[in-house]
Structures are given as structure tokens and as C-alpha cells.
Amino acid sequence: MRIGHALLLLGPVLWVAGANLAPLVEMARISLLDVYPAAPDHVPRYGLANYALLASPIYRGAFLRSLGFAALTTLLTLLLAYPLAYAIAFATPARQRLRRLLLLIAPFWTGEIVRIFAIMLLLANRGAVNGVLRWAGIIEDPLPLLYNPFSLAAGMVYVVLLAMLLPLYAALEKLPRDLLEAAAGLGAGPWTRLRRVTLPLTREGIAAGSALVFLISLGTFAVPSILGGADTTLFSMTIGGLFASSAGRWPLGAAFGLTLLAAGLAIAACIMGWVDRRRIPTT
Amino acid sequence: MREKTGQAIVSRGSPVTRRAVLGATGVAAVAAPWVLRTRPAAAAGTLNITAYDGFIPPAFKQQFEKDTGIEVRVRLASSQAPELNLLVAEREHPLSDLCTVTGNRIHQFVEAQVIEPLDIGRLRNWKAINPLYSESDWIAVEGATMAVPLLVGAEVLVYNTEKVKPAPDSWGAMFDPRYRGKTAYVIEDFLQCTMLLQGADPTFVTYVDKPAEAARAVNAARDLLIENKSQVLKFYEDGAVLQQLLVGGDVVLAQAYAGALAKLILAGQPLRLVIPREGATAFVYNFAVVKGAANRDNAYRFLDALLAYPDIGAALTRSAGYTSTFLGAEASLNELERATFLLTPDQLKRLRFLSYKGQKLSSDLIDRAVAEVEAG
Amino acid sequence: MSRHRLLRFVYWGVVLCLFLPLALVALASLGDGPVVGFPIARPTLGWYAIALADPEIVRAFLVSCAAAVASTALALAMGLWTSLAIASLASPALRTLLLCGACLPLVTPGIISAISLRIYIRLLGIDPGLGAIVLGHAIHSAPYVVIVVGLRLRLVPPHLVEAARSLGAGQIRAFCSVTLPWLRPAIGAAAVLALLESFDDFLRSFFLGGYRPTLPVLIYGRLFSGLSPEIGAIATLVLALTLSVGLSGEWLFWRTRTPQGS
After folding, report:
1. CB < 8 Å from C in window 30-69 of A
2. Rounded to whole angstroms, how far apart are CA atoms B327 and C231?
3. Of A159, A279, A257, A104, nearest to A207 (Cα)?
4. Minimal Cβ distance to C189: which of A12, A166, A204
């Protein structure tokens, strides 16, 4: 048995060490340098100066904004995806469920970039929404729907919806129906059933979806870069900019990236730990 | 007690678990591509190029492949940043032989040691290029030319002719309160345009020994931008985004690269380009030889053939959308193309070409200023 | 039931919102100008012809598909293995440690992950190309599996497994007949997420790829010249293909089921 257990652990440990950790070692080394890539005659100096720069007002704002924005996106996506998953799991005949899922999944195959530009076509001053509203006479001047926090949030939810929906659906689908029937039999109304039975039992789906969406939103680059405005600079864009701007700024980008990584990991651990702590006894 | 659901240990003749099948599939799937391995970069008769879309006219590429039997493989990049990062990441074992380098970023490529000086002696048709470009020092490091200049890009003011009246002719129009919230720019580039507006030198060549003066100039531009941040709807980076900004009607006035707009104008959009009276920055688009290129000989054959191809200037202009650096290229373009793509001699006079010399100083200052404008 | 009607309304409302922007893209792909935009003077199907006839696009699509399938298989295998390993550990501290290690790629910003992988594969002696892309995508997708499957694994009803064991099933039989079916929806969900992540991925594919790009890398490269209706045509074609493959697969699935099956 011990050998079996050891074998069970061997693969993942090797994978984690060799595929997840090892590539980051070089990045961590770069984050401690002063300049990279450097001219051959440059003498490298190691230090934590890059990490200290996070405290400076230029970068601090973007970092905090990213955390807040990721949290907001997670909440919005959860609020939208839960009723959606519930609708497919409970308000749909069994034969139709797969089809309805497929309909939701299909749009995601067209690719993130195309879908982002699609949102521009929808929300621009001369886009579909404004076009229809003006044609119907509801408004005179176009509404500024794009390149602001609204379009950013809408775009993000549009892009990450599936990552929340699928874990939620997986959890809801296997919910024991007899529990709900028993609760109804005991006199619990629909909202009580939701609150006391369904939500707690789908805890792991909520946690999985929230963790995924939070982490994806934290690291996302394309949506804020294209759909954001002048005040919505997110930390991932700052990091990207450091890798883009000029030779020699990789260390700062690496340091910021690893910081973002640590923040994300901490929050993900919290979300997953929340499920672990309060286990619901299953009969 | 935690259920040991995971211990799938072999006890008796166990059925093949689904997990094992998945695992085997995964391994096989990963191994398969190595069985059909991609050709190593240094196979004779290959040339690898990392280029922008449209920089190699398809007709020329076909001709070259037919004449020489060399297979030309192209990897597309759409901006200098990812391209540079890629070249740096593969620095010790480069996967390409030629790459697109822009004159405003050449300093980064040289510092990162990813390109090597040109051996002009190997290019018999070097003279096809207008000496204004080929003999300039914009892309020269200590006298050695680093790349072959092919196209000229200028940063221009673009405006919607229906919404912006009268026609603007100064960078100051971007600060006009009438267009508040309806402008867009690339921070890095617009800092330099603002420097022009304020009478400073955006090429930094005159500040090479006066870093304090350079810092003052950059800070003055930065402060003006932060003060007028409400003018801007969006900071953009890609030409495709600017196109949608203009076509979607959200922006009526912007700083842009000429090339991205040429197609819009040809399609009949109500847009016009202006080189303001204070001038505009410009730079050349080039092909450089990657340091440590595996197929250097093929690279030079390619460049040489490119320079000798009939009407290459016009072909490049048509496929990339910019003015070319070749002598006599205008002759092969028709009226409409000339009006859309070419810079008039009058406009050329107002251009200030960005050069390697000033970039070491400007890089740091501009980067910092960009971060401050973004945050401010 | 009005509650159910409300829920169905929500569902179809969301489907509409998901498809509406793409309908606009499909509409825009009929444009006659070089750049996507409205109004369209003379609708044309020309861009579809160009897209379908372009060997680069077809090849890139196939490369994307191959990478997606292969990397998802690898990610499912490693992710499931890791989830089981995490579940088998007794100490919560060790579990958290392995979980964090397994989720590292998910928390790493894309550009950092892409560049460090590029440097890393050279250390391993792997050439950039499809193999490297599959590895890179699998590394990125495995955490999805670990999270989605792992959380579901915790709630395997222990009494069911015990019952199976007490009836004489070995560890593996118990695993196959109780645990795996229990995990099936989670594995399915994770597989879909992994497939999409891989198909969609740009950064890793750009840095780890060679001269046979995936579809997003090709599209991004062409964006330099602007967003042409051709790109809209490609997207619409992919959408049509996905819908038809998905729906016909679903129809076949139900055809082969017994009438009582559910």
C-alpha cells in the first residue's frame, strides 16, 4: 500500500516541480536583477529593489484596482451564472439539457479577440445598441457605452462566463433531488430550499467557479487593453507594458508578475479553504 | 477519517482504468508531434523570417522561392514588443534569420543583442534605396548600418472631416475642449508629439549630453498630458483598435500611424491625415539580420533579391500601406494610391526621424513618463 | 410554474446576449470594405471564399484543433492524477501545499508564463512547435481540472464507496464504478474548459510555436493590417462548425440511447 501511495504522489509531484515550478525559477532570478536583458559587459546586481517599487503610487493603484476588479467580476459572474446553471439543471427536461449547454458553449469557440471586437461593434457610438435606440427615437445622442468601467465589466463577464457556469452546472446536476423533495415535504418554500439545501450543497461548485473566474480576471490582459478606458489601467497591463516598453525592464515586470501570482494564490487558497472548513455531512 | 478514494493500486488483474487510457492518450498525443518533428531551423534551402503582415509582397515571395528553391517561412508579429520578447527568449538559439525592426525601437534590439550589423557589401542592389534613408544615421550604430530600410512610417494627426471643423493643423487640437472625451493616442508616441508642440526635440539627439534638459522636456510633456487627461477617451496600442475607435464613431481626433489609416481612407471613410505645422516624428521600417542566424546566406540572397525586384517599392506600399524608401517608387502607383499612401515632399520636410542615437536616453525617460500618465 | 418560466427567460436572454455580438460579426463579415464596420453598401460572401481557400488559415485551424485535443487529454490525465493525490494526503498542510503547487500556472500572468516556458523548453531540449505548444497548453489547463474535479472529489459519498468495497470490489473497481461516474460531470466540465482555453490561447502559442501557427496567432498577426471582414468570416465559420458538430453529436448521443435511458 505504501508503494502504491508513493506512486500516486510521484507523478503529480514531478509535474508540479518540473512543469509548474521550474519555469518560474528563471523568472524569479530575473526579478532580482537590475537590468535584463543586459549588454555582455554589464555586471549584474541582485536585489529586492523591484519588489519595493510596488509601493510607489504609480503602480500601487493599478494593483489594487486589479484586485477589486477581479472580485467584482467574480461576483457579477456568479450572480449571472447561478440562475443560468439552475435553469438548465432544473427548469429543463433531461433530454434538452445537453443541447442547451451546447448552445451556451458554442459562442466561446470563436476566440477571445473576435468576441472582444464583437463587443465593440455592439456598444460603439455607431454600434448596434446605440443604432437601435436612436432609430427607435429613445435617445438623441449616442450613449457612451464603451471604453469605461461598464464595457470592461461587461466584456470580462462575457469572456469568463463559462468558467463559472460549468463548475456550477456540474455541482447542480448531481444534486440529490430527493433531498429537495424531502425539504418541500417538510414545508420549506422555494427560497428556503434554495438557501438551506441547494446553495450549501453546491458550495464546491461555487468555490471552484469563483476561484477560476477570480484568477482569470486577475491575470487577463486582452479585455482591459481593448475595452478599457483611460482610467481603467489594470495591473496585468502594467506588467505587459514593462515587457513591452524597452529592453532592460524585464526584472520589474517579473517582480510584479510574481507578486500578482502570490496574491492570486493566497486568495485562491482562501476560497478553496472556505469549502474545506465547513463540510456538510452527506446523510 | 478521510476516504482514500485515490488509492487505485493494482491488486489482482486489474481492468485498464479509464485514467490509464487517458494518460496513455495524453502521452501518445504529446509524443506524436515529436515523431513527426518540425524541420530543424538550419536545414539547407530554408529561410525563416519574423515579419509584420504585408511586409513581404506575395508575388515577390513566390518568385524568390521559384528562382532559388529556398523555402521562405514567415512568422507573423503585429508589434515590436512581443517580437522583441520572443527574440530575446530564443536569443541563444534563434528561430529566425530576418526580422522586422522599426527605427523607433532599434535601440532595444541592439541592446538586447538580437540583431547584427548589415554587411552591405553583400547587397548589390543597395543603391535602389533612396540615399536619404540608406545613408542616414538613424539606424546606424557607430557607423555600421544595422538594417535595410524599406518603408517610412510617420505619426500623424487623423480627424473625422465631418465632426472636426475647421481642419486642424497643430498638435494643440488634441487639447481643444470641444473634443473632450473624443480623442485617443498612444501615450509613448504622443509624448513625443507633445514635445514637438512645446518646442522640444522628440528625437533626443540634441540632448545626448544634456540629460537634465531631456528630463525637463519629457516632464513638461508628461505634465501637460496628465493635466488634460479628460480629453482622452482611450489609450490604445494597436492599429486595429484605432480603426474601430474611428469607424465606431467614439473618437473623432487621434494621433496615429499613417499605415493603419490608409485602408480606411481608401474605403471612403470621412477621415483625413495631417502632419501638423510643428512637425511629426517618423521612423523607418526595416529588415534586420538576426544575430546568430542559422541561414545567413539565404537571408542575404533574399534581401538582395528584394532590392532588385522590379517595382518593389510600389509593391511594398500596396501590401503594407506605407511610403517606401525606394527611388522612383512613386511612378508605378496610380493617382489614388499616391494620394492615399505617399507623403508629399512638403510633408516629408516636416518629419523628424527618430534615430538610434537619442534612444538610449529617451527609453528610460519616456517609459517612466508613460507609467505616470497612465496612473495619473 | 412561473418560477421555471422566469428561469427559462433568463436562459434564453443570456443566449441572446451571447450570440448578439457574434451575429454582428457575422453581419460585418459580409462587408465590402477592407475594415469591419457599418453600414455596408454591398454585402458580399467574398471573404468567406477567401478564408476557405487560404491554406494558411485551414492549416492553422487544424493545428489549433490538434493542440486542443492533445493538450486537453494530457491536462485531464495529470489533473485527475493530481486531484487524487491531493485527496489521498492526510495532512491539510500538505494538501494545501500540493494544491498551490498545482495551481501555479493559473495564477501566473500570461506573459510571464509564456516567456518562462519558452526559455524553459530550451533547457529541456524541446524545439518550439506543436509539441511545445501542447505541453504549454496542458500546463495551463491542468489547474482547471484540479480545481473543478478536485473539489467535486471531496464530496464523493464515502458510504457508497464503502458499500462497493464491502461487496468485494477492489480499489480499482470501486474507483471505476463509484468515483469516476460521480466525477463525470466535473471531468466533462473541465474538459470543455481545457479545450476552449487551448483553442483560444494566444500568448503561449505565440512564444512556444514555430512556423506553423495556431489560429489565434495567425489572426493576431493579421490584425496589424486592421480588422478585416475576413477575420469575421473565419469566426463565423468556426461558430457554425462548432454548432453543427456539437448539435449533431448530441443528436447521435440521444439516438444511441435506450428509450428508458436518462
Report:
1. none
2. 35
3. A279
4. A166
Tell me the per-residue pLDDT of A114-160, one tens digit each, with 9 for 90 and over.
889 899 889 998 888 998 998 898 888 888 899 989 999 999 999 99
Chains touching C, CB cut-off 8 Å, 3+ pairs: A, B
- Residue B202 CA to residue B189 CA, distance in Å, equals 9
Give the Å distances, CA to CA, from B325 to A135, B125, C70.
Answer: 48, 13, 46
What is the pLDDT at residue B5? 37
Yes or no: say if A119 and A154 are a contact pair by the CB < 8 Å rule: yes
Q: DSSP characters for B134-168?
A: HT-STTEETTEE-SEEEEEEEEEEEEETTTS-SPP
Q: Which 8-state DSSP code applies to residue A143?
A: P
Q: Work out whether the CA dihedral C92, C94, C100, C102 comes out positive or negative.
A: negative
CATH architecture of the domain formed by C55-225: Orthogonal Bundle (1.10)
Asked if A1 lies within 8 A of B8 by C-beta distance, the reply is: no
Domain B46-152+283-341 classified CATH 3.40.190.10?
yes
Answer yes or no: do C218 and B76 touch at CB < 8 A: yes
- How much of chain A, in percent, has pLDDT values that exceed 90? 25
ipTM of the complex: 0.84
Which among B4, B11, B22, B27 is the top mutation candidate for probing chain C, defined by the most C β-carbons within 10 Å of its own β-carbon? B22
B-C CB pairs within 8 A amount to: 181
Domains, in order of start, for chain A: 46-277 (1.10.3720.10)
With contacts defined as CB-CB under 8 Å, which chain B residues touch C162?
A: 3
Phi, psi of B310 (to 5 degrees): -65, 135
Closest residue in chain B to residue C157, using alpha carbons only: B3
Select from C163, C157, C197 the least CA-distant residue to C181.
C157
Q: At residue C1, does pLDDT exceed 70?
A: no
The answer to whether residues C207 and B89 touch, using CB atoms and an 8 Å cutoff, is yes
CB contact under 8 A, B5 and C156: yes
Distance separating alpha carbons of residues B307 and B287, to the nearest angstrom: 12
B183 Cβ contact partners less than 8 Å away, ≥ 6 residues apart? B174, B231, B232, B233, B251, B252, B253, B254
A57 touches chain B (CB under 8 A): yes
DSSP E strand stretches across A175-255: none
Binary contact (B76, C213; C-beta < 8 A):
yes
Nearest Cα residue to A242 out of A258, A229, A263, A265:
A258
Quote the pLDDT of residue B38: 46
Would you state the CATH architecture of domain B154-282+355-375?
3-Layer(aba) Sandwich (3.40)
R_g of chain B computed on alpha carbons: 25
Q: Where in chain B is the domain with CATH 3.40.190.10?
A: 46-152+283-341, 154-282+355-375
**Residue B26's pLDDT band (cuts 50, 70, 90):** low
Residues of A within 8 A of B238 (CB-CB) are 226
Contact: B7, A120; criterion CB under 8 Å: no
Amino acid at B356: Y
Per the CB < 8 Å rule, is C185 touching A174? yes
How many Cβ contacts (< 8 angstroms) between chains A and B?
105
Q: Which residues does chain A have within 8 Å of residue C86's beta carbon, measured at their own beta carbons?
A: 12
- Residue A229: list chain B partners with CB under 8 A: 233-234
